[in-house]
Amino acid sequence: MRTSHLATLLFLLTLNPSARAQYVDEQIQRVTNRMTASIVIKGAPEHYHTLADSMAKYKVPGVSIAVVQDGKLAWAQGFGVKTAGSNDAVSATTLFQAASISKPVSATAMLRLVEQGVLALDTPINTFLKSWQLPDNAYTKTEAVTLRRLVSHSAGLNVHGFPGYAVGAPVPTVQQILEGKAPANTAAVQVEMTPGSTWKYSGGGTTIMQLAMMDATGEEFPSLVKRLVLDPIGMQDSAFEQPLSKAKQDLAAAGHDEEGKVIVGRWHTYPELAAAGLWTTPSDLSKWAIEIAKARAGKSSKTLSQKMATAMLTEQKAPSGLGPMLSDKGDAMYFEHGGSNEGYRCFVVYFPALERGAAIMTNGEGGSIVFRQVLNALAREYQWPAFQSREITLLPIETGMLTELIGEYPLPPGSPTDTPPSLFISQEAGKLMVEVPKFLPKTEIVMPAGDELLAPENGFQLKIIKDQNGQVAYLDFGSRKLVKKAR
């Protein structure tokens, strides 16, 4: 435990309940009223804004935050409203779609089945699939698709994510989704590169994991995860319900598009349960994170043994563990996962050695910028070793470079966006702007170094790759090669 952390803990212990509550309230006020951009310019005046400012700017009606300190829930609070234009306030128990944060929670259930001998991490996945089989091809001749590779996104599969199904639209079975057959709205899931060779995010792979769990146990997925994970941890406000039951609909925040308008039908349905189907709260996600960290430390076995929890938080194929994403080492190591469903953006992070973390859920497409700024504020207030605002020195962008950069960059298959599948760079009022519709709202980008473009609002990064003549060859976007579209 760090000295500053110990001093804070000792200070809190000296306070009576009333004073402690006041101290926590002061922390909440500092977090929500002294927010900054993710990147600050060196030498520029400090500029703070409120959470309400950020929500209004990015048209996010509601936000819910839960913060963990000393391995316990320190506070949980809702901000804004469940539905734009209403007075129905978001509370700490308001339900949101967890989107891809469903993946590490589902992985926890899968790993419990491994410990029970029902599944195995390194056995070819078709061994456990009874109702459908993953087609073999040239890529699987020497290496097999296994649960270890599926859960760490290293199985070489396609289908990055899922758009969901509008309320009232036909919903496919899991088998139809995997086969890419109507009414499924995504391609057939198949092996596109040698399993184990590289990291490639695949919600399609997680859906195969879902079917393997169901086929191996003969149990429906919602009840399976409830029994293995949700109930043991005490995640009472969580459920893999798609569609959401009428009894819980009044508890849920509606999803909103990038303009702040309610999604038709309030939300989409995701039959890809393991990949995107969890409804939950930040408090429940925090319970999950705390439990995984306790299991790794040998302090709990409600879900996983110490050995399995350690494996879960051990890098398999960077940046994935067995479910969560992993970063840094030692006391600074943290596990995390983000989520992006139609109308929802969310994030959970936890530092096991420090017993600190948070979960943030939003009901707007612009929520990724909002939660990133909340993370910056939390990192400053609670002395996290990561997520604090980065200070940079700007370089002027030459006119020739501007001309080279401005334009449309089609995104490659498997990118976390759908329509239109492009990144756009433009110039407005003397500022360079970047936009990825449905993924990144239009925001300013600046150049701190000759090979980097950054968005101060949320830390979005593009790397400039030049050719031998010093001209822009392409942009690197999270290991994706973006080449400007010819006019």
From TrEMBL:
Positions of the Beta-lactamase-related domain: 51-367
Query: Record's Pfam families?
Result: Beta-lactamase
Which InterPro entries does the entry mention? AmpC-like, Beta-lactam-related, Beta-lactam/transpept-like
Would the keyword Cell membrane turn up in this protein's UniProt record?
no
Signal peptide (residue range): 1-21
Going by the UniProt record, its keywords in alphabetical order are:
Signal
Tell me the protein's name. Answer: Beta-lactamase family protein
